[in-house]
TrEMBL record:
Biological function: Binds to DNA and alters its conformation. May be involved in regulation of gene expression, nucleoid organization and DNA protection.
InterPro entries: YbaB-like_sf, YbaB/EbfC
Coiled-coil annotated residue ranges, if any: 4-31
Localization per Swiss-Prot or TrEMBL: Cytoplasm, Nucleoid
Protein name: Nucleoid-associated protein OM944_17320
Keyword check for DNA-binding: yes
UniProt-listed Gene3D superfamilies: Nucleoid-associated protein YbaB-like domain
Matches recorded under HAMAP family: DNA_YbaB_EbfC (MF_00274)
Family matches, as PANTHER family: NUCLEOID-ASSOCIATED PROTEIN YBAB (PTHR33449)
NCBIfam families attached to this UniProt entry: DNA_YbaB_EbfC
Keyword tags: Coiled coil, Cytoplasm, DNA-binding
Domain of life of the source: Bacteria
Length: 111
């Protein structure tokens, strides 16, 4: 027989674990590089840019547009990388808490 109270307890436990994990995501970082390493952008698990490093050779007025393109490219790479880390952390947080229902990914529901 289906135990609805047990299921609700597991949901509350999963929610608490997910909230705790989300609070820790700020400590995750990922970096992306572009222009063969001329630009490096670091983001955190809150999906915020925390650092931009660039080679001094790019700091001339004639390279302004190229620098902008390199920053955007490096940021996008870093964001893709942090998304993977976030999904992995959320998956770990919910692992074994709920029955395995095909197509239901609890980690992505709260990330």
């Amino acid at each position: 027989m289906f135990d609805i109270m047990g299921m609700m307890g597991k949901v509350k436990e999963a929610q608490a674990k997910i909230k705790e994990t989300q609070a820790q995501l700020v400590h995750l970082t990922a970096s992306g590089e572009s222009g063969a390493g001329l630009v490096k952008v670091t983001v955190n698990g809150d999906r915020k840019v925390v650092k931009i490093d660039m080679d001094e050779s790019l700091l001339s007025p004639q390279d302004k547009e190229m620098l902008s393109d390199l920053i955007v490219a490096a940021t996008n790479i870093a964001m893709e990388s942090i998304e993977g880390q976030i999904k992995e952390e959320m998956k770990k947080a919910t692992e074994g808490m709920m029955p395995n229902i095909p197509g239901m990914d609890l980690g992505s529901m709260f990330g």
